[in-house]
Design goal:
Blueprint (H helix, E strand, L loop, with lengths): L1 H37 L3 H4 L14 E3 L8 E3 L1 E17 L4 E4 L5 E6 L6 E2 L4 E6 L2 H31 L5 H27 L10 E5 L4 E6 L6 E2 L8 E4 L3 E9 L11 E6 L7 E13 L4 E9 L9 E18 L4 E3 L2 E8 L3 E12 L6 E6 L6 E3 L2 H9 L1
Antiparallel strand pairs: 1-19, 2-21, 3-12, 3-16, 4-11, 5-7, 5-10, 6-9, 7-8, 9-11, 12-15, 13-14, 13-16, 14-15, 16-20, 17-18, 18-19, 19-20
């Protein structure tokens, strides 16, 4: 009986032991899985790195028939250094002439306006002046005095001829007559300067243009009062047949400009009509805020220059510089930048950015390249055609 119970107990406890064994084996695995899910490594879970293949140059283009695009070699060109500055047209101060009134009075008529072109002797202004009345009064007195002095001289001469007076008395009478004549002439000239006829005074004074030019300043209006020989003048007339171009040149560029140099002037309003001027003055005082000096250029005005116009002045330096020259058609202007195409291996062309310069005035088919291209490098002669083919 005891043996039977022992065998039964063994049978019953055997599965329990197995369960404990499997539980002991599975618990670390469960804990390991739980720990991994709770503290996972981000780097371990990240996808594998991508295999990046380097791309080709975006400026490199392949064509089927590169021989269809002719090439030309860039050449070296010697030129003088240039300095381009901006400026404005101003009047020549020596040619500014004020219109002076010789009489004081009230304005009754204005015959010209600011900005008008006037000729010498043209009527500008009319005023009513009391100076005419005063001048006519002096004139009438001078006429009477001269007439009396002449009569006294004739009487003295007759008395002297009969021995009634001494020669000294005759000389006094002659001197008095001469003084009266001078006074009369002065009074007469004064009325004429005021624009009046001594025989027909009107009380009106006409002011005329003293020279031919443009009225650049007006300080008088209708019914205003004008003072004789006072400032400011009613008008200022400027002779703009010759004008000044005043430019600002930075301190670091002053060595490029010299007195007597010839500068090329281009008006913003007429870019296709260049002019030449001569440097007549370089200011000895710099603007302390922007470190520039005023450079004055004298230019003959062909009739299209207006005061205040903006200009570009080009100064040619004394030193020589070497630049690269290519055909103008080889330069592609795109998005305010300049490019050229140079040949590359395997039927390809490389688009190279350059810094374009001026088109040569002696040959409009050639253009300077300041940087980005060396002499001897071949370039496509017609960059626009190649760019059009590549865009298709």
């Amino acid at each position: 009986m005891r043996d039977m119970n022992r065998s039964t107990v063994r049978q019953l406890t055997a599965p329990v032991g197995l369960l404990r064994f499997f539980f002991a084996l599975s618990l670390p695995a469960v804990l390991a899985l739980t720990g991994c899910s709770a503290h996972a490594d981000p780097a371990a879970e990240a996808p594998p790195p991508a295999n990046i293949v380097p791309g080709t140059d975006p400026g490199l283009f392949a064509v089927d028939h590169p021989e269809q695009f002719p090439l030309a070699a860039a050449v070296e060109h010697s030129t003088t250094s240039e300095l381009v500055v901006t400026g404005a047209v101003t009047p020549d101060i020596a040619r500014n002439i004020p219109v002076v009134s010789l009489a004081s009075g009230r304005v009754v008529a204005i015959r010209a306006r600011l900005g008008d072109t006037v000729q010498k002797g043209q009527l500008l202004l009319t005023i009513r002046s009391d100076d005419v009345a005063g001048g006519f009064d002096a004139y009438r007195k001078a006429v009477s005095d001269e007439l009396l002095a002449r009569k006294q001289l004739n009487r003295a001469a007759d008395l002297y001829a009969h021995g009634a007076i001494a020669q000294q008395d005759l000389e006094v009478a002659q001197d008095t007559a001469d003084d009266a004549k001078v006074t009369l002439d002065t009074a007469t000239e004064h009325l004429r300067l005021l624009g009046n006829d001594p025989d027909k005074p009107m009380g009106i004074v006409d002011i005329v243009a003293p020279t031919t030019g443009v009225i650049t300043d007006q300080e008088v209006t209708n019914a205003a009062t004008v003072q004789a020989y006072s400032s400011p003048s009613p008008f200022t007339i400027s002779d703009i047949s010759s004008v000044w171009i005043v430019c600002d040149v930075y301190e670091n560029d002053l060595a490029t400009v010299r007195l007597g140099d010839i500068a090329e002037i281009t008006l913003n309003a007429y870019p296709d009509r260049p002019f030449k001027g001569k440097v007549s003055n370089i200011s000895t005082i710099l603007d302390p805020s922007i470190r520039t000096a005023k450079v004055r250029i004298e230019v003959q005005n062909p009739g299209i220059m207006r005061l205040g116009m903006f200009v570009r002045a080009t100064f040619h330096g004394q030193t020589r510089e070497m630049h690269t020259i290519v055909p103008s058609s080889a330069v592609l202007h795109m998005h305010d930048r300049d490019f050229v195409f140079v040949p590359a291996p395997d039927k390809k062309f490389l688009r190279v950015e350059v810094v374009g310069g001026d088109v040569l005035t002696e040959n409009t088919k050639l253009q300077e390249i300041k940087s980005g291209l060396k002499p001897g490098q071949p370039v496509v002669t017609n960059a626009l055609v190649l760019d059009h083919v590549l865009a298709q």
